[in-house]
Amino acid sequence: MPAAVVDAQSAHAAGVQRLLQSYRAVPATAPVRLAKSTSNLFRTRTKTRAKGLDTSGLTRVIAVDVEARTADVAGMCTYDDLVAATLRHGLVPLVVPQLKTITLGGAVTGLGIESTSFRNGLPHESVLEMDILTGAGEVLTASRRENADLYRAFPNSYGTLGYAVRLRIELEPVKPFVALTQVQFHSLVDLVAAMDGIMATGSLDGVAVDYLDGVVFGADESYLCVGRQTSAPGPVSDYTGQQIYYRSIQHVRGGTDDRLTIHDYLWRWDTDWFWCSEAFGAQHPLIRRIWPGRYRRSSFYGKLMKLEQRFHIGDRIEKLNGRPPRERVVQDIEVPIERCAEFLDWFLDTVPIEPIWLCPLRLRKDGDGDGWPLYPIRPQQSYVNVGFWSTVPVGSSEGATNRLIERKVGEFDGHKSLYSDSYYSRQEFDELYGGESYRAVKKRYDPDSRLLDLYAKAVQRR
To answer: Residue 362: phi, psi to the nearest 5?
Structure first.
């Protein structure tokens, strides 16, 4: 075994011990939480002075097995670091979420998605096994064969069943470049039909498709972003400087072509946090020239957003201009593909937010027949993730627009991710997110309820 791998394994073992020691130091009556410098959650929560668990030794890639195409990865390792390690071998995780600071453990316990999801499903499906620190203070290995109930319930549990300490994941080979075609549509029905066709055949015009997502700028202007891996050399675009990726998608012709390195393609959305950097002025040409490159990344915009929320800067500006405060609407939802155009029509008519991100997905497998109970989208069913991230004027009640969207998603047989604000009743929540299945696993692996309940965390913001 290479010395570097031995050293990484030793460091990981020491990190696990520090994690366990910090867990045991938390009083039985105090909440258990991770100590994290960054977060990609967008829901407020009750403040606590309890010291978080020490995860400082759980941020590395432990080993990459090139022949087996697998990687052993610490739970707090970011995808930025994970991709850097695997790309050296011409490999990447089967799904690489859009933002660099998302951790592997976070993407599995909180779900993740990207433009390979139409063929590779969701990140938890490529997890072969994982070591989990449970609420009982034990580190257990979970897989399809060992502690299988925990393995299946872990996705979408958001740390309420435990924390991933180590994950072994599948990898896939990639080529050095991605050739992109941005296909324009003037009808949402036509766009969704084309997306459905690509999902069914894995190709467009007889050519295999490796990556697929889309952007809706309005009811009569939308695009599919179709990517194909290639080894052919040639010029590439750079969207980490003055050029802005999502603006490059828009054009007046029926289709345009582009090329990126595989690295820059994977992180194409991070530089401007999709399009959310505009809210901070970072897309203004003059400001962009002086905006330091190291701060053109989603994690920095996230810090600015937290400052804005803390001091209510946006609402104060609205008040000065004689306008009402604004409600944050930062959500990702999934609807069956046959209902997608209808949902988009409703959304564009009702909610003043655009652009909108589209990402098709289809589960790779069904968990050997038992599925994923905390996010029970159907196997063999094509879905479209619809992402919208902005603010709207406040309504007559708290979270009025978010509540309206929740109801409408249910009417369209969809599901909503739990990384942001939720308003479901307990009964509605149980019907959508595991209910009795969740409680059975919770009772077995966290019998003293040291970790928060999922409803308490996701809806009650504890």
So the answer is: -150, 125
Q: What is the pLDDT of residue 367?
A: 46
Kindly state whether residue 105 falls inside one of the protein's structural domains.
Answer: yes
Confidence category of residue 363, pLDDT binned at 50, 70, 90: very high
Sequence-ordered list of residues with C-beta below 8 angstroms from that of 451, at least 6 positions apart, any chain: 32, 135, 159, 160, 161, 162
Q: Can you say whether residue 136 is alpha, beta or left, with left for phi > 0 and alpha for psi between -120 and 50 degrees?
A: alpha
Taken as a whole, the chain contains a residue count of: 462
The total of structural domains in the chain comes to 1
pLDDT over threshold 60, residue 3 = yes
49 within some domain: yes
Asked if residues 375 and 433 have their Cβ atoms less than 8 Å apart, the reply is yes
Q: What share of the chain is helix, strand, coil (3-state, %, to 5)?
A: 35, 25, 40
What CATH number is given to the structural domain containing 87? 3.30.465.10
Question: Under 8 Å CB-to-CB from 244, ≥6 apart: which residues?
Answer: 271, 272, 283
Find out whether 388 and 331 touch, Cβ atoms under 8 Å. yes
What are the angstrom distances between the C-alpha of 321 and each of 124, 314, 353, 397, 438?
A: 46, 11, 20, 22, 47
CA separation for the pair 140, 150 (Å, rounded): 9
Print the domain residue range for 98.
Answer: 3-174
